[in-house]
Design a protein that fits this description.
Helix content: 55-70%
Largest sheet: 8 strands, mixed
C-alpha cells in the first residue's frame, strides 16, 4: 500500500484506488538503469519515499533479472539448437548438389586431370606465338609490297632498263657480273665496228657474243623477278593462314573464358555451401553443450543499501544548471549570428578581399539630405573630418610618383553612401587648397545638384551631346576651390554616352582645368556605367558599407572592374559603428577617436599641418602636370 501511495486513504477509497492502481507502470517510472561507460557494469536506481523500500526493490529487481536471464539463456539455446538442426540438414543437401554439379562440369569439359587455368595458359601462349608470327608476316608483306608494285609496273611497261634498275636486281652479285660481261661484249663490238664491216667474221662473232650476253642477262633478271613475285604470293598465303589460326585461337580463348566463368560460379557455390555447413555444424555442437550448463553472465557486485538522505529535488544544482544552459544558449546564438553575417565588418576583411583600405568613415550623426552630404563643411573639427583627412592623405600618397587625378567613386549596390562619401571627400580635398571638380556621372539617379542646391538644366549629358560648353555647365559652390558638374537632362542611354569620343575628350579637358576630378557613378554591381568609367579614368575608389555589403558581392564586383582594366586605388569602409568595430582609420585608434585639439595640437599647429599636406599635394600635382606637358611636347 505504501508503494502505491494509498496507505493513508480511508478504507472505502483505498479499495477503489487499489483496483485502479498499476504497480508495474509505477515501478518502471521509479526504476532507473544507468550503464557505466566503457564497462559491462550498470547501476540500478529506485526512487521511493521510503529508503528501506527503495533498497529492497532494487535488490529484488536484480535477483529476479538474474534468474530470468538464466531461464532465457536455456530456452534460447534450445530454440537455436532446433533451428540449427533444420538448417544443417538443408545445407547438407545443398552441399551435395553443389559437389555433384562441380564434378559433372569438370567431367564434361575434360578438367579432371588438367585444370582450366592450364588450358587458358596454353591458349594464351599459342595466341601470342601466332600473333607474333602474323605480325612478322605483315611487316614482311609491307616491305615486299612496294617492291612487287615496282616489278609489276616495270613488266607492264616492257622496259628492260626499269627491271635492271630495281633494287633487288641492281644489288644481285650475279646480275652485276652478267652486266659486266654484257658491257664487255658491247665494248668489243664497238671497237671491231671501227675497223671491220658487218660481214667480217670477227665482227659476226662479236655480234653473236653480244646477243648471247644480253639474252643471258635478261633471262636471269626475269628469273630473279619471278622469284620475288613467288615469295610475295607465298607470304600472302602464309599471312591468311596465320590470320585464320589467330581467329581460331581467339575463339578458343573466348570459350575457355566462358567455361571459366561457369567453373568459378560452381566452385564458389560449392565453397560457400561447405563453409556454411561447417559453421552451422560447429555452432550446433556448441549449443548442445552449452544447454547442459546453467551458467549466468550476470552477478550483483554490490547490494543496494538504504540512503541516508533524500536525492531530489536539489534547488541549488538546478539553478546552476539553468544558468549554465542559458549562458551557453546565448553564446551559441551570438556565434550563429556572427557566422551568418557575411557582410564586411572591419578593414582587415577588405585586405582579405584584395583591396587596400584607404580609411574608415564613421556614421554621420545627421539625417538624410544636403546637410548629411556636406557634413564635413559644416563640422571641420569632427571625427568624420579627421577620418576624411586621413583618407585624403592615404589617397594622395598611394602613388606618390604618379598620383591619380581623375577618379571614379563607386560601390556594389545602392544606398551604400557612395555619393555622400564623394561629396565629403571632395570638400576635404578642396580644403587642402587644390581645385576640385565633382562630376555627377550617375545619369540614372543624379543627386549632386540636390546636395548643393544648384540647377540641373545643363550638365554632363549636355556636354557629351554638344549642347553646351564646360564654362556654362560647371558651377561653383559655396566651398572654396570646389566646383560641381551636374548630370544635366537624364538621357535614355547613359552607358552609350560614356562610350563616345566626345566624353573621352571631355575627360581630358576637365583633367587639365582641375587638380582633382571626382566622378560619381552608379553602383558597379547593378549597371555597367562604373565599369566603363573605371577603364577611362586614372583610378577607382570602392565604397563599402560596414555591416551591410556582403563579401561575395564585393568579390564579384571587384573582379568585374579588374577584368575591365580598372586601376583600383583602394576602398573606403563607410558607416562604421564605433561600438561594434575595432579597426584603424582616420583618427580611430584603440576604439576611441581623437580630434587635433584633444590630441595635443593647437590651432596654429593644426593650420601648419594642413598647409604641409596642401603643399605636398601641390608639388605632386605640378610634377604630374609637368610630366604631362613633357609628354605632349615629345
Amino acid at each position: 500500500m505504501g508503494f502505491l501511495g494509498i496507505d493513508r486513504l480511508p478504507e472505502p477509497e483505498r479499495e477503489k484506488a487499489l483496483s485502479r492502481a498499476d504497480a508495474a507502470s509505477l515501478l518502471l517510472r521509479n526504476l532507473f538503469v544507468d550503464p557505466v561507460r566503457d564497462s559491462m557494469v550498470v547501476h540500478l536506481r529506485v526512487e521511493d519515499r521510503d529508503p528501506g523500500r527503495a533498497s529492497l526493490i532494487a535488490n529484488t529487481v536484480a535477483e529476479v533479472y538474474m534468474q530470468a536471464n538464466v531461464e532465457r539463456r536455456i530456452e534460447g539455446s534450445r530454440d537455436a539448437a532446433d533451428w540449427l538442426d533444420d538448417q544443417r540438414l538443408n545445407l547438407k543437401s545443398r552441399l551435395e548438389k553443389s559437389e555433384v554439379a562441380l564434378y559433372d562440369f569438370k567431367k564434361a569439359n575434360d578438367l579432371v586431370y588438367t585444370s582450366l587455368e592450364d588450358k587458358q595458359t596454353m591458349t594464351t601462349q599459342k595466341f601470342a606465338t601466332i600473333n607474333d608470327s602474323l605480325t612478322r608476316a605483315r611487316l614482311k608483306r609491307a616491305e615486299l609490297t612496294a617492291k612487287v608494285r615496282d616489278i609489276e609496273e616495270a613488266q607492264a611497261s616492257g622496259d628492260f632498263d626499269r627491271l635492271l634498275a630495281l633494287d633487288d636486281v641492281a644489288r644481285s652479285a650475279f646480275i652485276i657480273d652478267l652486266k659486266k660481261q654484257y658491257m664487255a661484249s658491247l665494248d668489243e663490238k664497238v671497237d671491231l665496228s671501227e675497223r671491220y664491216g658487218d660481214e667480217h667474221p670477227r665482227m659476226k662473232v662479236a655480234v653473236e657474243k653480244l646477243k648471247n650476253a644480253h639474252s643471258t642477262l635478261k633471262r636471269e633478271v626475269e628469273i630473279l623477278v619471278s622469284v620475288r613475285l613467288s615469295e610475295y604470293r607465298q607470304l600472302l598465303e602464309t599471312e591468311r593462314a596465320l590470320a585464320a589460326m589467330l581467329a581460331s585461337v581467339k575463339q578458343e580463348a573466348f570459350e575457355n573464358s566462358k567455361k571459366e566463368l561457369e567453373y568459378k560460379r560452381l566452385a564458389r557455390e560449392e565453397a560457400n555451401d561447405r563453409q556454411l555447413f561447417d559453421l552451422v555444424l560447429k555452432r550446433s555442437t556448441e549449443l548442445d553443450l552449452s544447454s547442459l550448463l546453467k551458467t549466468n553472465n550476470i552477478r550483483v557486485l554490490e547490494k543496494a543499501t538504504a540512503p541516508s538522505g533524500p536525492v531530489r529535488p536539489r534547488p541549488l544544482t538546478n539553478l546552476v544548471i539553468a544558468l549554465a544552459i542559458g549562458l551557453l544558449a546565448g553564446m551559441g546564438i551570438a556565434l550563429l549570428l556572427d557566422v551568418l553575417d557575411q557582410s564586411v565588418r572591419g578593414p582587415g576583411e577588405l585586405a582579405a578581399l584584395g583591396l587596400d583600405c584607404l580609411g574608415v568613415m564613421s556614421r554621420i550623426p545627421v539625417g538624410k539630405g544636403p546637410k548629411r552630404d556636406r557634413y564635413v563643411a559644416d563640422a571641420p573639427r569632427s571625427v568624420l573630418s579627421e577620418q576624411l583627412r586621413t583618407i585624403r592623405t592615404n589617397m594622395l600618397f598611394m602613388r606618390p610618383d604618379n598620383p591619380p587625378r581623375r577618379i571614379v567613386i563607386t560601390s556594389t549596390f545602392p544606398q551604400e553612401g557612395k555619393t555622400t562619401t564623394l561629396i565629403n571627400l571632395g570638400i576635404t580635398l578642396a580644403q587642402a587648397g587644390g581645385r576640385v571638380l565633382l562630376v555627377d556621372s550617375d545619369m540614372r539617379r543624379p543627386r549632386l545638384h540636390q546636395s548643393f542646391g544648384i540647377d540641373n538644366a545643363v550638365g554632363l549629358s549636355s556636354l557629351i551631346v554638344g549642347d553646351s560648353d564646360p564654362d556654362q555647365a560647371i558651377q561653383k559652390t559655396d566651398v572654396d576651390n570646389l566646383f560641381v558638374l551636374p548630370c544635366g537632362p537624364i538621357p535614355p542611354n547613359p552607358a552609350e554616352l560614356l562610350h563616345t569620343r566626345r566624353f573621352q575628350e571631355l575627360i581630358a579637358t576637365l583633367g587639365e582645368r582641375f587638380d582633382r576630378v571626382l566622378f560619381d557613378s552608379p553602383p558597379a554591381g547593378v549597371v555597367t556605367d562604373a565599369i566603363i568609367l573605371s577603364n577611362e579614368l586614372d583610378g577607382t575608389i570602392f565604397v563599402v558599407k560596414a555591416h551591410k555589403t556582403e563579401r561575395g558581392a564585393i568579390e564579384r564586383t571587384v573582379h568585374a572592374l579588374s577584368e575591365a582594366g580598372a586601376k583600383m586605388i583602394g576602398a573606403i569602409l563607410n558607416s562604421l559603428s564605433t561600438g561594434r568595430e575595432r579597426g584603424y582609420g582616420g583618427g580611430y585608434y584603440g576604439g576611441r577617436y581623437y580630434q587635433y585639439g584633444s590630441y595635443g595640437l593647437s590651432s596654429d599647429e593644426r593650420a601648419q599641418a594642413e598647409k604641409t599636406v596642401a603643399d605636398a599635394r601641390k608639388d605632386t600635382s605640378s610634377v604630374g602636370k609637368k610630366n604631362g606637358q613633357d609628354a605632349k611636347n615629345a
